[in-house]
Amino acid sequence: MSSDPGLREDSQTSGHEARWEQHNSERRSRILRAAVELIEEAPAGTDVSVRQISARAGLAKSVVYRQFEGREDLDRRIRSHLIDDFSRTLEAGLDTSHGSIEEIIARTIRAVADWMADHPRLDEFARTGPTHEGPSDVDAVTSLKLRMSERARDVLTSIADQLGVDTGDGIFDTLPFAVVTMVEGTLTHWVHDVDPTRTREQIVDELTTLTRYVLDGAIRSVGLSVDPRMELTDLIAQLSAR
């Protein structure tokens, strides 16, 4: 063990800074959770004030302003918090370790439908501006669509690599964003329809079928034919053995 007092002092300073950063991180999370709760509770078209957020978080208003650079920064970080949380749900839906192609598609679309229908105020707020990390001219929902398109493309590329299929820069490059846009646009129309003709389960089933048709066409374009109801892991093993 070193007896150098300078090293001990540096270590103590580093430890103090780490604890302080953790303390600030916990406060920011507390503030963001409070903001999300208030936004969800607020009537449509009603703004949530910093005073309300600080009161719900149990902190002084000045503390909120110290944690963020201003109201715009706070709003951006709230959107990031929303999108990150929702992304984790979608990632679970896209888990290819269990379920058939049809099941994976259905549970992912159902997760989107549930979030949009059950949390309309959060969905509305996410569309009002950018995330903390994203460009200022791209709203949070669009950022999420791009993120999920990239994730879906990674999944398809990974499966293609396992099968030794070269997808090149063709249809598989544009398919993820096209499908994500179709699903999001259709669900947005359905959620805002004052007198919808389809139930939630019906719209999810129809979008699952449409997505399966599009994916099946893309798969056939590279010379493969698959059973969308077969467990995906078994399907990959079967195709790899050919």
TrEMBL record:
Keywords: DNA-binding. InterPro entries: Homeodomain-like_sf (IPR009057), HTH-type_TetR-like_transc_reg (IPR050109), HTH_TetR (IPR001647). The keyword DNA damage does not apply. Residues 1-26 are annotated as: Disordered. Residues 49-68 bind DNA. Residues 25-86 form the HTH tetR-type domain. Transmembrane segments: none annotated. This is TetR/AcrR family transcriptional regulator. It comes from Rhodococcus gannanensis.
